[in-house]
Write a structure and sequence with these properties.
Rossmann fold; 3 domains; Dihydrodipicolinate Reductase, domain 2; AASS; single chain; alpha/beta; 16 strands; 463 residues; seven-stranded mixed beta sheet; globular
Length: 463
């Protein structure tokens, strides 16, 4: 191993979960030509070994991120570090990278703690690239390419809307919800919580409280894939200055689902099943039916089904009822089996019974941007759309769109093509131009269409 470290450039990948599969394969395919040796560290040695695929230019190691000596030793031996850990665990890796002067790449949002290392990174001429996965990541890069192109022509931005969703591919769409878990189920259950959604529309700030979030949607049409809906992300304004859109009239970011999902999901919100703030007593022995009944009023004769229909105002012929039945929510024999569980955790368990991807299922990523701008006194619009279908349960669309940009950025940094130091996200041309170009080779292609700009005044007549 020491001999390998001396002659090859070592990339340390910390975390060998689902998102790392396409990333690792990318490096293995390029390892000989680029003189790379990949060290894959994970708490599970077995998982790390599986991801190496017995490749001669890869080594698996058991790595406990909380073992400071082990972590520091692994980072010291690397030429560059990729952290695919949960976001809150990046910071210790980042601090070690400052100490040992190693560049670092993550797919996660920039935390306040990570941003706090910006001065140290710049002082040591280090690149700490973050938000270089899918969302955040590809959304930043594809958006900035168009926005910079508009500005380079002298255009003025009026509107920017960005939508992204991890969905099930059409050929694997086999349930009434038109949805399966393609990523962390917990994130789906808790989506939209922790504050109201806020954005700006035609110069007016708008706010949607969580209780109304899933009933305020808009439609999106993607050629060849049909109609989708989108609900607002929690904070669309955080990238206002980052994107240079301080004077834009409309700024909105949202999550894509198939039409009808949000209305159905709102049933869980209204019942209180997505709440993660308290523990339910005796949850390990609770049946699915008892779980539902715990949110319903007492009645001496009405069944759980009747009470559910009444409180949610579901008619007998409403497909919303069929969607609930499909989840087997009223089964008195299925047991939750989770001790000291919150409603959100129990709901996640129930949904996982029905929404887990099967071995032959494929996932799908849909991204949709809208750019409104004024050029030479004429208002115009560009719509940019991207659809990516997964290959299988290892090389999923999610793994490709999260892992490949991380890998590409890492290699560009290693080869000296990305030079700007500091804690950053991929909004500079030296980052996004080569990565977007290379992503097209892997089927991540944006199709752009020009059209008249309507904004939110569809009755306006254009000459």
């Amino acid at each position: 191993m020491c001999y390998i470290y001396k002659i090859m450039r070592v990339i340390l990948v910390i975390g060998a979960g689902r998102s790392a599969s396409s990333l690792i394969q990318y490096f293995l395919n390029k390892s000989t030509a680029e003189n790379l040796h990949l060290v894959i560290g994970d708490l599970s040695l077995e998982l790390a070994q599986k991801k190496t695929n017995n490749h001669p230019n890869a080594t698996a190691m058991a790595l406990d991120i909380f073992d400071a000596n082990q972590r520091k030793e692994a980072i010291q031996k690397a030429d560059i570090v990729i952290s695919m850990l949960p976001a809150h665990l990046h910071i210790e890796v980042a601090r070690d990278c400052v100490v040992y002067k190693k560049n670092m790449v993550t797919a996660s949002y920039i935390s306040d703690e990570m941003q706090g290392l910006d001065a140290a990174a710049k002082e040591n001429n280090l690149i700490f690239m973050n938000e270089i996965g899918l969302d955040p990541g590809i959304d930043h890069m594809s958006a900035m390419k168009v926005i910079d192109g508009i500005r380079d022509k002298g255009g003025k931005m009026l509107l920017f809307e960005s939508f992204c969703g991890g969905l099930v591919a059409p050929e694997s769409d086999t349930n009434l919800w038109n949805y399966k878990f393609t990523w962390a189920p917990r994130n789906v259950v808790l989506a939209g919580q922790g504050g109201c959604a806020k954005f700006i529309q035609e110069g007016t700030y708008k706010y949607i409280p969580y209780c109304n979030l899933f009933r305020r949607t808009e439609f999106l049409d993607v050629e060849g894939y049909g109609r989708f809906e989108a609900y607002s992300n929690r904070d669309s304004l955080k990238y206002k200055s980052v994107y240079g859109l301080d004077n834009v009239l409309t700024l909105y970011r949202g999550t894509i689902r198939r039409v009808g999902f949000s209305k159905a999901w709102n049933m869980f919100v209204q019942l209180g099943m997505t709440d993660d703030s308290y523990v339910m007593e005796n949850s390990e022995n609770m049946s699915y039916r008892q779980f539902v009944n715990s949110f319903l009023p007492y009645h001496p004769t009405d069944s759980v089904e009747i009470k559910t229909r009444l409180i949610l105002k579901i008619d007998q012929d409403d497909i919303m009822w069929d969607k609930l039945l499909e989840l087997d929510l009223f089964n008195n024999k299925k047991i939750v089996g989770l001790k000291n569980a919150t409603p959100a955790q129990i709901l996640e368990k129930i949904l996982s019974d029905s929404w887990t991807l099967q071995a032959d299922d494929k996932d799908m990523i849909v991204m949709y941007h809208k750019f409104g701008y004024e050029l030479n006194g004429v208002k115009q619009q560009i719509d940019s759309k991207m659809v990516c279908i997964g290959d299988d349960q290892t090389y999923t669309a999610m793994a490709k769109t999260v892992g490949l940009p991380v890998a590409m950025a890492t290699l560009l940094i290693l080869n000296g093509k990305i030079k700007t130091p500091g804690v950053q996200l991929p909004i500079n041309k030296e980052v996004y131009l080569p990565i977007l170009e290379e992503l097209e080779e892997y089927g991540v292609v944006f199709k752009e269409e020009s059209m008249p700009y309507l904004g939110y005044r569809p009755d306006k007549i254009f000459s």
